[in-house]
């Protein structure tokens, strides 16, 4: 991957732990916290895909709130105070421990770093500021610029346009298999950070590499 000049990261699940909001509300959610987090995440993605297919875009903050409403009702937890608390926690989402040192290492090696995410700009700015990752990112790219969600090709093209690089010069890193495979089908170089050890997707096209932690990236890039 010697021609790679920029490392572009998915946000939720890759740099940021989407399960951290529910985990920090365990005093209320109890043992249901992991299940609440899983359903919230699944509906969040489903609603993003459905809105893209319908051509009825709404930003990721609304999608996240809608998914949470479905989740809380499903668990019999529909409560305004709990909803507001969980959304506030999601806005200040926690970064994975490997995110900061790897971003710093890649920048020191001369690579541009960026986020390419479904997240709304305000969500991404708040997450980067809260986690301390903001100074380590050259660009923060939101699907709001193209008004359609991943895995639409316009989202991956956005990274090339903003960074002024060819697809083969961009390494995209995502923990979401569907995102990693779709970005590779578009033409980006891709490292799938398969944190959960999931099986490979049955869609085009296999990523260039599969890693289990972001800490493996510098060696993968020879940096």
Task: Give a topology summary.
Elements: E1 6-9, H1 20-23, H2 26-29, H3 33-54, H4 60-74, H5 80-91, H6 99-108, E2 112-117, H7 121-131, E3 139-142, H8 153-163, E4 170-174, H9 177-186, E5 189-193, E6 209-211, H10 217-220
Parallel strand pairs: 1-2, 1-4, 2-3, 4-5, 5-6
Helix pairs in contact: 3-4
Textual characterization of the structure:
- Helix 3 (33-54) packs across helix 4 (60-74).
- The protein has helices at residues 20-23, 26-29, 33-54, 60-74, 80-91, 99-108, 121-131, 153-163, 177-186, 217-220; strands at 6-9, 112-117, 139-142, 170-174, 189-193, 209-211.
- The chain has 2 domains: 6-16 and 94-220, HAD superfamily/HAD-like (Rossmann fold, 3-Layer(aba) Sandwich); 20-91, Putative phosphatase, domain 2 (DNA polymerase, domain 1, Orthogonal Bundle), CATH 1.10.150.
- With 223 residues, it is an alpha/beta fold.
- The mean pLDDT is 97.
Tell me the domain tally: 2
The radius of gyration over CA amounts to: 17 Å
Gross CATH architecture of the largest domain: 3-Layer(aba) Sandwich
**How many angstroms does the end-to-end distance come to?**
10 Å
In CATH, the homologous superfamily of the largest domain goes by the name: HAD superfamily/HAD-like
Count of helical regions: 10
* Overall pLDDT: 97
- Give, in order, the helices and strands: EHHHHHHEHEHEHEEH
Beta strand count: 6
Highest CATH level, the class of the largest domain: Alpha Beta
Instruction: Strand order, main sheet: write it out.
Output: 3-2-1-4-5-6
CATH topology of the largest domain: Rossmann fold
SS content category: alpha/beta
């Amino acid at each position: 991957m010697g021609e790679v000049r920029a490392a572009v990261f998915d946000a939720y699940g890759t740099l940021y732990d989407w399960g951290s909001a529910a985990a920090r509300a365990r005093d209320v959610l109890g043992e249901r916290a992991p299940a609440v987090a899983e359903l919230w995440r699944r509906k969040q993605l489903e609603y993003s895909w459905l809105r893209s297919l319908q051509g009825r875009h709404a930003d990721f903050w609304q999608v996240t709130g809608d998914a949470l409403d479905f989740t809380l009702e499903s668990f019999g937890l529909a409560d305004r105070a709990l909803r507001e608390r969980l959304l506030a926690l999601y806005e200040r989402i926690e970064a994975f421990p490997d995110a900061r040192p790897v971003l710093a290492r890649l920048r020191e090696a001369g690579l541009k770093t960026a986020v390419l995410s479904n997240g709304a700009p305000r969500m991404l700015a708040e997450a980067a500021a809260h986690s301390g990752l903001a100074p380590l990112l050259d660009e923060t790219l939101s699907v709001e610029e193209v008004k359609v969600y991943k895995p639409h090709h316009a989202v991956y093209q956005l990274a090339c346009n903003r960074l002024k690089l060819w697809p083969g010069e961009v390494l995209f890193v995502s923990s979401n298999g569907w995102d990693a495979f779709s970005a590779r089908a578009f033409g980006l170089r891709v490292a799938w950070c398969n944190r959960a050890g999931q099986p490979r997707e049955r869609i085009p096209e296999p990523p260039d590499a599969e890693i289990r932690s972001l800490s493996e990236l510098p060696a993968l890039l020879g940096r």
